[in-house]
Design a protein that fits this description.
Blueprint: H1 3-8, H2 18-35, H3 42-53, E1 61-62, E2 66-68, E3 74-76, E4 81-82, E5 86-89, E6 94-96, E7 101-102, E8 107-109, E9 111-112, H4 117-121, E10 126-127, E11 130-132, E12 137-138, E13 143-144, E14 149-150, E15 155-156, E16 161-162, E17 170-174, E18 177-182
Parallel strand pairs: 1-4, 2-5, 3-6, 4-7, 5-8, 6-11, 7-12, 8-13, 11-14, 12-15, 13-16, 15-17
Antiparallel strand pairs: 9-10, 17-18
């Protein structure tokens, strides 16, 4: 099994593998080119992002600067919006639903490292996928940790650190992020 196959399977893998280094280098070149564009270069921005992601949902928009590890592990739905300074460590799959918005400085981390110091010293790492539903709003400066799922129509407060799954239709905030309240009041039946 290749190091990339191990990475995508969520197993420990060596990030110094030549193929992975090459793919990260490609992503760095594409994101640098994207980040160096001006607002007047909309077509060039779209071309660079399409090359980075392979496909991008119709009407999606990313404000530079933007950074990611690979790009190819990111799936964007339609009309996704990323504000300035967002980072996605897409070592595992990151799936983002339609009409989802990210405030400035949101960080999405699929990468994780062994808790055992001896294992960490080996340089091996792993990853867990992140899934974000439709119509989600992630407030500025929020951090999404490896393996979390955020349900559709949920709002995550600015500065939150999401360490566990958050259900649909709630407002959640804090460090660690927790559900504060439902977004829709139940109607008496």
């Amino acid at each position: 099994m290749s190091e990339k196959q191990k990475m995508l399977a969520g197993e420990l893998y060596d990030p110094r593998d030549a193929q992975l280094l090459s793919e990260r280098h490609r992503a760095r070149l594409l994101t640098k080119a994207f980040n160096d564009t001006s607002d007047a270069q909309g077509k060039e921005r779209k071309r660079l992002l399409s090359e980075l992601f392979g496909a991008m949902g119709k009407g999606s928009f990313i404000e530079p600067p933007f950074h990611c590890d690979y790009g190819g592990s990111i799936t964007l739905g339609e009309k996704v919006f990323f504000n300035f300074n967002c980072v996605i460590l897409d070592v595992a799959e990151v799936t983002i639903g339609n009409h989802t918005m990210f405030g400035p400085g949101v960080q999405i981390y699929t990468a994780t490292h062994p808790l055992d110091a001896d294992e960490r010293r080996s340089g091996l790492e792993a990853a867990k996928p992140i899934t974000i539903g439709d119509d989600v709003w992630i407030g500025g400066g929020a951090i999404l940790c490896p393996g979390v799922t955020i349900g559709s129509r949920t709002v995550i407060g600015a500065g939150s650190v999401v360490t566990k799954d958050i259900p649909e239709d709630v407002f959640a905030a804090g460090n660690p992020c927790r559900v504060i309240r439902p977004l829709k009041e139940e109607t008496p039946g």
